[in-house]
## 1
Amino acid sequence: MLRGIAASPGFAIAPAYHFKVLEPPVERCEIGADEIGAEIDRFKTGVEQAKHELRAIRDRLAREMGEDYARFLDAQLLVLEDEMAIKDTIERVQRERVNAAYVFDEIVRRTAASIGALDDGYLRERAPDIKDVGRRVLRIMRGEPHGSIIPMDHEVILTAHDVNPSDTAQLRGKKVAGIVTEVGGRTSHMAIMARALEIPAVVGVREAGKKIADGDMVIVDGNKGVVIVNPDDEELERYRSKRQQYVLFTHDLEQLRDSPAVTVDGHEVQLSANIELSEEVPSAIEHGCRGIGLFRTEFLFLTSLRLPDEEEQFHIYDEVAELIAPETVIIRTLDIGGDKVMHDVGTGEMNPYLGWRAIRFSLTCQDIFRSQLRAILRASTRKNVKVMYPFVATIEELRQINVIFREVQDDLKRDSIPFDEECESGLMIETPSAALTADAMARETDFFSIGSNDLTQYTLAVDRGNERVAHLFMHYHPAVLRLMERVVHAAHSNGISVGVCGEVAGDLLVVPVLLGLGLNELSTNPIDLPRVKRVVRSLSLREAKRMARTVLGISSGEGVRRFLAERFQSAYPDLAELLIDQETREVQPIR
Ligand code: PEP
Ligand code: MG
């Protein structure tokens, strides 16, 4: 049994097909003075042809999956459009009289290696993309055809070190039942693609390439991030039946799509979706969301390797607002820093999570902040857009933000640009300081949304991205829940609403407690919505309040977990069977 990160839910069983990126060695060959011209022409044609191929793939991706997915290919196109790299290659061919393939390969590898060594996780993940583009040019120069990623006529589990964005474009409609990769996290392009294509996937499985051979029977459990290689008959049977149950279960959940998230005693909670790309909106609607509770806009900035301007942003925000209307979208301003580092920003900090992050960045780089606010406001004419600020820790920050927000509104009015003058702006509660001063903050803002991922990280002093301390990351810890209770109280006594948009909102064990604490909105990954709704619809608010009171009296995270897990097992045995590890009896927060 191999463990990795649950990147896309569901079960898949099929033989492995190992996708290897072929890297034939590129030999250094001397060329004669009379061959230089032809060699350079061949190289230029190779680059042009590679651009042509990549643009075609990009267009197809944009058409079939949307612009935000297509953007993954931009890093590759940038390399081909990098005149320095092309010029360097040509000059070295002329000067050293060697083959262009050798020189270009060296330049691409050097670029990929320096990007691969960066601290920034997102940029680091672009290193394989860059090698991918080098291989494309070399293949064209050699006159070899482009191979297909899946030459199979039967279902397979695709195993790979990683799958390049240009290759993921080929996955749609192919017989890929499941995916296992050695690298990647929940936000790697592979994970995002797999979720969009609804292919169960586990990423970050160390040495999967060594441990899984071509043709091995493989089970992918995308709910728990587990991969089983060559299971025995009994295990195979068990997973076949799980897969079957899961299909029925998801089918049942689909029936709930249009029902409200209302408890048996008539209390309704708003269930909305978290998205990172505008292309996720249709899927969020399909999963029965009532609005977008968190649109993480930094993704637009991170994928494009340059800052999108006001106009580009406006089009994306406006598209989301149009798609989700008449429901509301809460657009969060840039949250870079921490693990999300944009080109040239925040690198080299000792403590990036405590550093120049999110609103601190926006308040320093006010041009960027103001143009984002303008773009958001311009998209608000349907009266279904709200603005939200991440990582606000002090009331001084809030006041400064509010002044800027008003100034941007005044600018728009002066320029006669239409926007919703009642557009609400609210805060994410992500730090203990914000939670502890929520009573004061509530008087100067329109709504709260608790970012439980960060609130947990900062309350328990546990890095949310560090595997070594992952067992300490408990978003149901009493310290976190007690802060949440305080925030709800502060919000409600000031007549504003409060939601939660961290991963806890999709953690079925904790959902009853969130309801019992009085949260008005749960915003979660679209795929989690139906099962959260199912739990809400089978609860009574009275019971939920009782559970919340009990857990607030427990002193340890472990104690809360045990209590909630037992409750869950007895209240939802069918869900527990599917989602809880029956072998280890490990009752992890369910995703
Ligand atoms: C959070 O911190 O809970 C949150 C929703 O924001 P992000 O995960 O984008 O930091
Ligand atoms: Mg956060």
## 2
Amino acid sequence: MMNNEIMSMYPDELEGFVTGLGEKPYRAKQLFADMAKGYGIGEMTDLPQVFRAALLEKADYRMPRIAEKKVSKIDGTVKYLFEMTDGECVESVFMRYEHGTSLCVSSQAGCAMGCRFCASTLLGKVRDLTASEIYGQVVMAGRDTGERVDGVVLMGTGEPLDNFDNVIRFIRLVSDKKGLGLGVRHIALSTCGLIPGIRKLMETGLPVTLSVSLHASDDATRSALMPVNRAYGISELLDACREYFDMTGRRVTFEYTLISGKNDSEEDALKLAALLKKGMRSPCHVNLIRLNDVRETGLEAPSAERAGRFGQVLKNSGINATIRRRLGADVTASCGQLRLRHIQQKEDT
Ligand code: SAH
């Protein structure tokens, strides 16, 4: 973190910065609260003029800007393309459920993990997002919708455990009571399975819900879909998930994207059930997602009926499973797609 990057600072760090500018310590609390509301420095009218002028001159304020916004006509899901202060763009998706609202945020511009079915990784990783750039997505979505963001899922573009320190800082910022005060239990982190990162996450003691992208029940299939599996195989991954449950008491969710002809047969479902019963042996949940088509990958989603059968086989085997409802199907809500189209359009012109 740069020493003037104010939105990535915890309130006590901000206090050091503010007093360094010759202001009273309590101004830090005001500034922190104003940033949590998404105010531009000019809008922070509770701060003295001279202080605001000093901030404009000395502070690096990285609040993302809404570059593009699409509202689903089907279910009201809002897809944002946020532009960072250096011009990099990432997406977030705001969703409404019966139990509250949720925002899916990006943690990196692009992704280095190389999963075969994913739009976010097609152009590789450009850079990590700072804590403020992740936090700013939540702040701006809240400001724009006028609704409270009740939960956050780190499931947008990027591998959160490949940007560990900034992601942890983001979690602490967004949950700080002086700002948005979002409960850590309402934050879910999705990973492709970087085991050392899962262990480090346990050590923080933060009660984050862990989601693991599994997508296959044997190493050969998983390695073909997800290069990360060559470094961290399924059996060690499930060991880490079991430890995560033992340490945190939080049930782990497994994401399983159904891809036609790759991992979606009844036999695959039976194998997955057996794997989770033997390898996991602690409460878990399987989230089935029918592949969102990404033109460039040449992979296809199975029919809804076939996905339903897969889910039924899991349930019959005693595994908790749900098929994820598709929200915002008309706004390319599948993560990474809006950013990709945006970059491609820029290159075309
Ligand atoms: N890097 C993290 C989080 C971002 S991806 C991870 O791998 O978990 C969020 C989820 O969307 C992951 O489960 C990912 O595998 C899945 N996903 C990526 N591309 C998809 C696509 N085209 N269709 C369906 N799910 C996809």
## 3
Amino acid sequence: MDCKKFVEEQIAEIKQTVGSATAINALSGGVDSSLVTVLGHRALGEQLKTVFIDNALMREGEPQRVVKTFADMGIPVELVEAQEEFLSALAGLTDPEQKRQAITDTFYAKVFGRLVRESGAKFLLHGTILTDIEETVAGIKRQHNILAQLGIDTKDAYGYSVLEPLKTLRKDGVREVCEFLKLPAEISKRIPFPGPALATRIVGEVTRERLATVRAATAIVEEELGDSDAFQYLAVLLNDRATGIRDNKREFGQIIVVRCIESTDARIATVTELPWYKLQHICERIISEIKGVNRCLYDLTPKPPATIEYI
Ligand code: XMP
């Protein structure tokens, strides 16, 4: 791919479309939204307002870490507190698509709607990539950031137009452009993390308590597999329980699944052959460090038929 040409074309197009209006974008810290933020700021400077929405679904310390990474590059990011709005929208929901829908609605209609009204932005810059579009259109999964491709007129529905500068790229292309732009490794090499965040790794209801459990497991898995070179690694909380023994007492405990995969673009994936001692060590930490968890499983399923995330 000709990265130079891609960057120049996208910057020119963003400039031309937005003109003298203002635009807004939500940064999740993932490689896609990070690249959009950088392209958007190069094109629009202060005409672009970048927000990080704290939706309660993020990993340990993530909001502060992301804001700092961008501050170090001279890009201001506003942290927007919206934990209660997301958690109350998710309360009681167990169906994967309903959960995704609740996150989409809370994000675009409620929280974003309010930010757009307050900022007067006419455009939203968005990190949609080609794989998101293909899978959504094929009906495999409703990626939370796909709107136009599903026939949703954002101008009508939410009051702003959406620009998607990455919609012709796949994940590997996004990383190539990040490297071309010399973005810090914590952005260009960052493992994929989905927009609906830890909610995609909780089967069943998303609550503060269940989020704390999967967040703790995620921190352990990321710490232990950070040097694995795998495409993606994650922890999932199942909506099931299993009997165990702790402190000589019966415990009907929670179950964490560890997933670690190899892929180039997330369309297909194989399972990483992690060394046994590594798996044992991760298991040991998860069952001893996280309250209420007494089983840890390693997922051996490739994509397809499984997806990478669990909802
Ligand atoms: P699946 O689970 O569909 O994941 O096999 C493929 C890749 O996409 C990420 N993913 C998402 N990314 N919004 C995103 O921005 C989403 O709704 C979403 N769902 C999954 C996932 O982490 C994997 O890398």
